[in-house]
Amino acid sequence: MNKSTDYWFPAKRYGWGWGMPVTWQGKVVFAAFFVLLAIGALTLLPRYGQLSFVIFTVILSVILMVICWLKGEPPKWRWGNK
Q: Tens digits of per-residue pLDDT, 25-40?
């Protein structure tokens, strides 16, 4: 696994997808995701119910995946170090 500083999110060693962020920009994106998720839980669940929170969570998750796709290592299936 090549840990280039150009990528905010490195590829996972096993499986498909990205691991934890390695740059400060990636850590800010990751933290913002969880902060927005918590704010959504505290505001949407009491006022509008579970469905609105699920829709909000799906939208946030799609945004996070798009950022990972654009700023992370190209995804492919990995079987570990060879």
A: 999 999 999 999 999 9
Q: Which residues pair with 15 in a beta bridge?
A: 78
Q: What is the pLDDT of residues 42-54, one digit of tens each?
A: 999 999 999 999 9
pTM: predicted TM-score of the whole model, two decimal places: 0.82
Q: What distance in Å separates the CA atoms of residue 21 and residue 66, rounded to the nearest whole number?
A: 14
Residue 11 phi/psi, 5-degree rounding, is: -70, 150
Tokens found for residue 18: 């990205």
Amino acid 68 reads C
Residue pair 75/18 in contact by the 8 Å Cβ criterion: yes
